[in-house]
Amino acid sequence: MKLSLFIVIGALFCATVKSSERSSLIHEIMKKNGSDFVQAFQCMVDVVGTVSNANGFSELWSQSEPVAKYHLEKWLMCPQAGDKLAVVLCNIREGLLTIQVLNEYFQLVFAQNPEVSKLIAVEYYKRCASFELVDDFLPEFLNEKEIIVNDMI
């Protein structure tokens, strides 16, 4: 499901390159070369590491973390990929690979302890609130936003 979400986003990126009509999210990502989006995912990776280590998943996270960080570093380099289309394709590729690593990790961890998803989401909103772009995807990513907000009140 997450892969299909980013395939759709990728298609929107490609359509944006060829079209003057842009959604506000796609326009914002293109305008900022995706760097804010990548930084939001970097913050998420940091949060996942903190929560994982605090909840007994440090060994499992130590397998996923280097791969996620590798793709984040490559994602940050996408603005230097060449022309606009190459930049867009790089953003799509590295975004997909980053999400794939996180999604696989989440599936393993949440199967063992579903409460960790709430802990990650709460910590994300505490530490990464300044990154608005991922806020559009995190609820879908974790499927917990409304439950968490209600639990915090």
List keywords for this structure.
153 residues; mainly alpha; elongated; disordered C terminus
Question: Topology of this protein?
Answer:
Elements: H1 2-18, H2 24-31, H3 35-54, H4 58-76, H5 84-112, H6 115-127, H7 132-135, H8 138-142, H9 145-152
Helix pairs in contact: 1-5, 3-4, 3-6, 4-5
In short:
This protein is mainly alpha-helical and 153 residues long.
What would you say this structure looks like, in words?
The chain has 153 residues and is an all-alpha fold. It has one domain. 80% of the residues lie in helices and 0% in strands. The protein is built from 9 helices and no strands. α3 runs antiparallel to α4 (58-76), α3 crosses α6 (115-127) and α4 (58-76) packs antiparallel against α5 (84-112). It is elongated. The relative contact order is 0.16. The model is unreliable at 11-23 and 144-153 (pLDDT under 50).
State mean pLDDT (0 to 100 scale). 75
Beta-sheet strand percentage? under 5%
Radius of gyration from the alpha-carbon trace, in angstroms: 16 Å
Give the SSE string.
HHHHHHHHH
* Share of helical residues: over 70%
Task: Determine the number of helices (DSSP H or I, runs of at least 4 residues).
Answer: 9
**Largest beta-sheet details:** none
| Total strands | 0
| Overall body shape | elongated
Unreliable stretches: 11-23, 144-153
Overall tally of domains:
1
What separation lies between the terminal Cα atoms? Answer: 30 Å
Q: What structural class is derived from the secondary structure elements? A: mainly alpha
Keywords: Signal
Protein name: Small secreted gut protein
Organism: Mayetiola destructor (Hessian fly)
Signal peptide: 1-19
